[in-house]
Batch of 3 targets.
Target 1
Amino acid sequence: MNSHALRVLEYDRVREILASYAMSPLGKALAGALEPGGDAATIERRLREADEMRRLTAIARVPLRGFKDVATSIRTLAEGGRPAEPELLWDTVELLRGAVALREVLKREPDEFPELAALGEGIADVPELREAIERSIDTEGDVRDDATPRLAELRAELRRKRESIRERITRRLAEPKLQRALQAEGIKFKNDRYLLPVRAEHRQAVPGVIRDRSQSGATLYIEPEDLVVEGDALLALIDDERAEVRRILWELTRAVLAAEATLRAVQEAVAHVDLTCAKARFAADYRLTTPALTDPDEAFDLVLRDARHPYLMWLARGRAESGDGSSGEGRAAIDRVHEEVVPLDISLGNGRRLLVVTGPNTGGKTVALKTIGLCVLMGVSGVPVPAAEGSRIPMISDLFADIGDEQSIEQSLSTFSSHLTHIREILATGDARALVLLDELGAGTDPIEGAALATSLLEWFDRSSWHGVITTHLGSLKEFAFRCDGAENASMQFDPVSLKPTFRMVVGLPGVSHALEIARRLGVPGEIVDEAQSAIDRVQGPSREVIEKMEHTHRRMERERRRMERLRRRAQGERRAAESEREEARAERDAWRKEAELLADDVIRSARGKIVPLLEKLKSVPKQHRAVVDELRWVVELLLAETPLGERREAFVRSLKKEDEVFVPKFGEKCKVRKVNKTNRIVTVLLNGIPTEVGFDDVSWVET
C-alpha cells in the first residue's frame, strides 16, 4: 500500500491498538509490523481466524503470555562468544511448553473452529530440545545439580568444603579475644571467600590475609591464615564448577542453534495466534464486524454501514471509562462510544464511482475520509472493521490519500504544489482497482483555476473508471456530481439553528456552507449580509432554493429516524436491565458458594489445630501403632490441602520462583525465596540472611 496514504490516514494507530491487546512480546511486535494487502484468499482466511477466535475466547482461555523471541537472543549471545544464560534457556522451555498447550486449545473443536485447528496443526513441537533443557535447567532458571555426574560431584564437594570452612570460622568467632576485635557480628562472604570484619586498630589480633576493607578504612576483611589453604581449595572447586556449568550451557546453546529454524517457526506461529487473538478482543470490545471481501475479478464494491473512526472510538471509550470509573467490561461504555462517535454510510461501485463531499469547515469531512480509508485498510489487513453487518470491502490494488496541509519549506512547496505533487504520483501509479481519497480538492490557489483543474481531474477519473471520495468547498464540483452519471454529491450536515456541525454524512445531497447565517449570528451588519445574499441569489438562486428544500426534507426524515432509534435503544435498555438482574442473581449465588467454602475451610482448620497437638503426643506410641498415627496425620493434612484455600495456597507456593517474597506467619517476617522443593513440599527462605526451610503450609501471600 502507498506509504504516504498509510501515514496521513494514521494507520499506525490501528497497529498501536492491536499491539495493546497482544499478550506477548512476539504478538506485540507482529502487530506493530502489520501491513495491509495480500491475496484475497489469505485475507479472507485471516478474517475467519479472527471471527473464530472471538467465539473461542468467549468459552476458553487461550494461553499466550510469556512468549519471547528466544531464538534471536540466543543467536546474538552465541555470536558474541557467550552461551545462553539458564534463564533464557528456561524461557525456551516455556515457549515450547506454551506452544504445545496453545496447540491443544486451538485443536479442541476442529469442526467448530476449523481455521484455528489448522493454525494449531502448524505449531511444531521440539520435544528433544525441550527435554534436554529440562534435564539440565530447573524451574528457577538455575543449572541443576544432576545436570551431569561431574557437576553433581563438584557441587557435593563444594557443599562439604563450605561447611568445613563455616564450622572452623564459627568456632573462631566464639573466642572472646576475637570478639573484641570484630567490627560486627558474623562473617562476610566476599569474592567466594569467608572473611572476618576486623576493626583496623585490632589488625594484629587476627593473623591472616586482608582481602578487602571498608570505604572508611575502619574495617578490614581478613581471611584467617589457617583458612587460606582451604579458601584457595574452595576457589579452585568453584572455578571447576563454573567451567562445568559453562560447558553445559554451551552444549544446550548449540542444541538450540541446531533447532533454530524450527524454533523460529514456532515463534512465528504463536505470534500469529497472539495477533489473531488481539484482533478478536479488539473486535469484541468495540463491536467490530467481519466485512465481505469482493474478489479482484468482480466489480468494485465498497459498502460501509454505520462506519466509525477506530481511533476516535478508542479515545472515546477511554473518556467514557475514566468518567464513570467502569472497569471496561464494556456495555455501558461502548454504548456511549457509539453515541459519541458519529457513524457514516457510504457506497461506491455499481455505477457510482466518485463521491463529492461538501460542507462547512470543521464539519467532519476529513474525519469521514479517514474513517473510509482506515476501514478499507483494516479490512484488507485481515482485521474486523468498525462498521455494521453487511459492510463490503473490495480487494483494492492500492489506496491513495492526499489529506491535510503538507507544504514543505525545504522543498519550497506551497500547499497547492504539495497537493499537485501527490496527485501526480497517484495518476502515475493508480488504476481502476485503487481507491483515491482527496481532501479539499482545488484549494490553495485561485478559486476559478482550482475549480477548473479539479473538475478536469474528476472527469479524467470518471472516464478511466477510477473510484474515489473527494471533499471540497468548490460549488462547481457539486454541479459536476449532478451532471456526471458516475458521481454523486454528499454533504456533512449542519444544524441551522445551533450553527454547529452534526458530523453526519448525507449521500445524495450537496452541502451548503451556511457562511451568511454564521456571519449574521456573529454580528456582521445586516445590510452587508443582505447584499451578499442578493448577489448569491442572482447567480444561483433556483439551485440554492432546491438544495435548501432538500435539506429541510432530509432533516424531517432524520428526526423521524432518531425517534425510531430512541425507541430501539429503549428496548435494548430494557433487555440489558433484565440481563443485569440475571448477573446479580448469579453473583449472589457465587457469593453464597464462596461463603460456604470459607466456612468449610475454617471448620477443617479448626479441627486440624486440635488434632495435630494430640498427634504430637502420640509420637511415643509403640512401634507397631506408629504407622496408624502417621496415616492419621496424612489424612488430616490431605483434608486441609483439598479445601478451596488450601488449593489456592498450594497453587501459590508451586508458582514461586527464586527471589520472590513471601510472608511466614510463624516468624512474622517477609522472606525471600531461595528454592522450592515441590516433591517434599518444602520452601527454603532467607530469614534474617539465614537459609531456613519451611513447609508449604507455613507460607502465605497475605501479611497479617
Note: Residues 562 and 568 are 10 Å apart (CA to CA).
Target 2
Amino acid sequence: MTAALASWLFAATWKGSLLVAFALVVHRVARNRIPSRWLCALLLVAILRLLAPVAPASAFSVFNLVPTAAPEPPKEIAVGAPMPRSPRVPVMLRTTAPPPPRRPWLPLLLGVWALGAAIVVSRAVAQTLRFHRRLRGARDVELGELLDECREVLHIRRTVRVAETDAVAAPSLHGWLRPTLLLPEGFLQSFTREQLRYAVLHELAHLRRSDVLVNWIATAAAALHWFNPLVRLALARLAEERELACDALALAALRAEERPAYGGTVLEIVDRLRQTHLVPALVGMTATPAQLKRRIVMIATFKQPRYSILFAALIVAVGLVTLTDAQAHEPQVVRFHKTLSAEAGAVMETLEKPISIDLRSASVADTAAALSTATGVQITIAEGAADPALRLNIKGENLPAHLVIMESLSAAGLAVKITETGVTAFKEPAEGERLLRMGGGEQERVMIRRKSSDEDVAEAERQVSRLRTKSDDPNARRFHIEAEATDDGVTNKRRVTLKDEHGVTTGTLEVEVVK
C-alpha cells in the first residue's frame, strides 16, 4: 500500500509538473493574446493531470516519448505440455514476483506529505465551517426581472437563490449544486440598479463556467501537492484568468455602449469592498492590483472572441496527449516446440511422480545424487557448471520430481534438460531463459517477458491460455505454481506452492542456497 501510494504520488507529481510548467509558459507568453477562458482550460487540464490516480493508456500520449527502463529478466513464466493423447500430463502456470526493494525512508516521507495535506484540508474545512455559521443569518432578496433577464442572456436555466449577508464583502457565488448569489449587506442601497445588473451578470458567469466546481478541484490539488511551488503558481494564475473570463462572458452579453459602465462598476466594487473569504465553495469579484490592471485593459479593448473552434480543438488535443499515459509494453510471448525421443519421453514420464525430500547443507553434487536416488533417474551435472562452494537446504513435500529438480538446481544457477539417459544440468544461459517443462512425446516452453514490474499478470495468463486453446487436453491435470524468491547477496531463497485447479495446496517446496 505504501509503495503504491508513493508510486502514484511520484508519477502524478512529475507528469503534472511538466504539464503545469508548459501551461505557465504559455500563460506568460500569450496571456494577452489568447482569450482567458482558453488559458483557464489549459491550466485546468494541467491541474487534472496532478489529480489523476489512473490515466488510460494511449498511443497519442506524450509520455510515450519518455524512455523506459531496459527489459528485466522474465518475471512470469508459463509452461505447459499439451498432449491430447496423454491425460496424465499436467499443464502448469508459474508466476514469480521479485521482492520489492527496501526503502526504509519511504514511510517517513509519506508521513510528512500526509501531515502537510491534512493541514491544508483542515484549514479549508475550518474556513468552510466558519463561513457556513455566518451564513445562517442570511436574508433572502428578491431581484425579480433583473435576475431573470441576466439568466436569460447567459442561457442559465438553473434556479438561483439571492441572499444578503455580512459573511461576504463583495458579490459572490456560493455552491455548485444549489447556487446562491450572495450580496454584502447594504449593497442594494449603495449601488444603482444598472450596477447591480453588472454585478449579477459577473457572478452568474461564474455559474455558467462552473467555477465553484473548478475551485473545489483546485483545493484538492493544493492539498495533495502542497509541497509543489508550481502548483501554487498555477492556482494563482487560474484564479486570475477566471475573473477575466467571467468579465469577457458578461461583456459579450452587453451592448457596446454598456461596456464602459460595466468596467466602472467592477473598479468601484473592487475599490470599495475588501477581499472575499478563501472558501472552496465560494467565488467572488476580487482582484489584486496587478490583476486589476489587466482587467481594465481587457474591458477597455474587449472584442468578441474569434477562432473559438481552433482553441477548443487545441485544448482537446492537449488533453488527449497529457491526460493519458504511455502504452504498457505488451508481454513478449515466445513459444518453443521440440519433439522428444521415446526414451526421453519415458524419463519425463518417470519424473511426473511426486516425491518428498529433506536435505541440509548439501553441495550441488550431493543434491543431484539425492535427487537421483529419490527419482531413479540419473542426474548429471555438466563439468564446471556448479559452484562447489554453494550449500543447499531443501525441503519438499508431494511435488512432481521434475519440479523439485528444476527449482533446486535453478536456484544454484543451473538449467535442466531431459535426455534419453536422464537429466543433464548445465549453466543457465545469461539471458535467464530456462528449459522448464517437458511432457509426453513433445516439450513446449512458453516464456513471457515483462518490461515493467507492474505488468498485469492476469493478461499474461490469458495470453498463455490462448496459446494453449487449440492443443490443450481437456482431461489433463492442471496445476498453478505460486513462487516467491529473495536474494540478499548471501542467501538465495525460493518457496514454491503447488495448487490444483480448485486452489487447494497439494505440495510445497522450500529451497535455500547459501553462497
Note: The chain has 15 helices and 18 strands.
Target 3
Amino acid sequence: MHSRFAARCLIALATVLVGPTAHASSERHRWPRWPTEFSRVIAPLRDDHTRDRERDHDRIEAVLGLDVYATALIEPWLLRALGDPSTSVKREALRLCFERELVTCVPSALAIWSSVTEPMLRVAALRVVGLHPAGAGLDALLGALRDDNDTMRAQAAIVLGTAALHGAARGRASAALLAKLGDLSASVRQNAVEALSALGSSDATLPIARLLEDAEPGVRLAAARALGQIGDPRAVAALARGLEAVNEPAVVRAHLGAVAVLPGAAAIDVLLAAFDEPPAGLSATDVADLIGLRPDPEPAVLDGMALRLRDPSGARLALRTLALYGAASTAVLRRELQRGVSPELALEIRQVIATADIPIRVAEPRVATPIPAPAPGTDGLAARRSAPTAVGLAEIDRLAATGGWGPGLDAAFVAGGAVVDHRVELALAAAVGPKAALGRWDRRPVATLVGWAKDRTHVAADRCLALLALGSVDPQAVGAPMALLAADALLADPDPRVRACALVPWYALETRPDARALLDDDPRVRTTAVLLAARRGLERRDRGRIALLAATDPDARVRLVATWARRTPAVGVGVGAPAWHHGGAVDPSGRWMRVALPNGPRIWLPVLTLGGVAFAWSPLPDAAASPEE
C-alpha cells in the first residue's frame, strides 16, 4: 500500500517544477506576538520559590523555550538562569549564551567554572569564557589547558584556537599551546596543533613538524594539515621525509597536499619527484590532482609538467594537472603544440585550451527573507492524513505554495518511526526546498532525517529522499551543523546514489564546493556535482575541475553536462528544491534517465527506483523529462 501510494505521489511530483527560493533569514529569532506569550515562557524562571529539584524540569523547559525569541529579550533571563541551582538549567543557559555570543554571560561563566566540578558544565562554561578571553578569562583558559583531566585540556585547546585573541594574549596562548604539543594525551596534542594552525603563528612550524613522526595517525594528519595552513616553507623538508615513511593513505595525502600549497623551489622539487614516483598509498592520479591544487603555479611547475607531457607514459596525467591550472597553463600548452606532439595528445591539449577560459560567475548574496512561524494548531498535512488516497498534484502543489506544510513537516519527522511511512512528507519537504526551513523551531526533525539517511538497512531511494529533505534544513537552525556533518560523511558512502543525493544538503548548507564529488569514481556523482555547482555559479575553486571533466572525462554524459554548465548562467546561491522527473527514457542499465534542458541539450540524470517506479531529480527547475531515446 505504501509503495503504491509513494509511487503515485512521486509521479505527481514529476510535473511540479519548483523555482529558486530564498534562504531563511539569518534573523531566526523573533519577538512575542502577544503580550502574555513571553510571560508564560519565563514564569518558571521568575518565581524564586519554584527553584527546587521538583521543578527543575519546568525551568529547563523555560530556558529551552527562550531559544525562539530575540536575543535582547532573553539576555536578562539567561543571566538569571546562570545562577540557578540546577546543573541542567545552567548548562542549557550556557549553551544559549555561546550560540548567541553573549559576552555579558562571561562573568557568570567564570564563576561557574571556578565553583563547580561537573565536567560537562565546566566545558560549557569554558566555551562561553572563550567569547571574551581577557584578564581572568584568559587565565581560566590557560589554567584549563593544565587541568588533570584529558578532556578538559583538549577542550581548552579547541577554545583557544577559536577565541578572539589579540596582542599579548595571542602570544600567551601560543606559548601555552606549544607546551601541549608534548602532552601525553593524543587528543590534546591534536587539538593543540589545530589551534596553533588557526592562530597562524610561524613560530609553531618546527615544533609541529616534529609531530609528523607522532605515534598517533590522527596527530600526524593534523600536523600535516596545519603546516599547509601556516604556509611556512621551512616545513617542506619534514613533509618530504614523511612522504618516504610508512603512513596511512589519508596521512600521505595530507603531506603532499601541504607541500602543494607551500611556496618555494624546494616544494616544487618534492611535487615533481612525487609525480615521477607516487608515494606509497597514493595513485598517480591522486598525485596529479594534488599538484593541481597549487594556487599560483610558478614557471618551474608549469615547465616541469610540460616536460612530463612529452613522456608518453605520463602525458595524460601531466595534462590533467595542467588542466586544473586553467588559464595559467594555456601558454605552456600552446608552446607544446608548436613543438609537436602525437595527434591524439594534440587533440586533448586543444580541448583543454578551449575549456580553460571559463567565466567566473560570482554568486549573488543570499536575500534575507524572514519566515514567520506558523500559527499554533495549523497543520497543512491534516487533510492528507485523514484521506491519503486523495493526495495528488493539486494538493502537493497547494501545500508547497501556501506554506501549510510548515509545522506539519517538522511534526511528522519529530514523531520518527519507519521511513516507509513518511515517504510523502520526505517528497514534499524536498519539493518545497529551503523555504521549508526544517528544524527552524526544533532540532529533532533534523536528527530523524540524519538517522534515516545513515541507515544502510533502508533502500537507496529512501535514504536519498531523507537526504533531499535535509536540503530543506534552515541554514541558521541549531540542527544545521548536524545535517552538514551527515552530508559530509555520506559523501563517502559506498552507494553512489547516496553520495549523489548527499550533495544536495552539502551545497544547501556549505559555501565551498566539494572536490571529492567532481573526482568521484561514479559518473552519476560527477554529473550531480556539476549540476549543483552550475546552479550556484562556477567559482574559481571548481572551474578547473569542471573544465577537466568537459575535456577529458571518460563518460560522454559527464562531458556533455560539464560543457553545458560552463555556458549556462547561474541560477543563484541556494540550490533550491529539486525538480522531479518521471517518464523520461531510461537507458538499458537502468541507471540513467534522459531529461531535456531549457534551450540546451538533453542530458542524463541518475535514476532512483521506489515501488517499482523509476524517477530522477535535478536542481534545475526548468528541466523536463524527455521520452525520446
Note: The two ends are 32 Å apart (CA to CA).
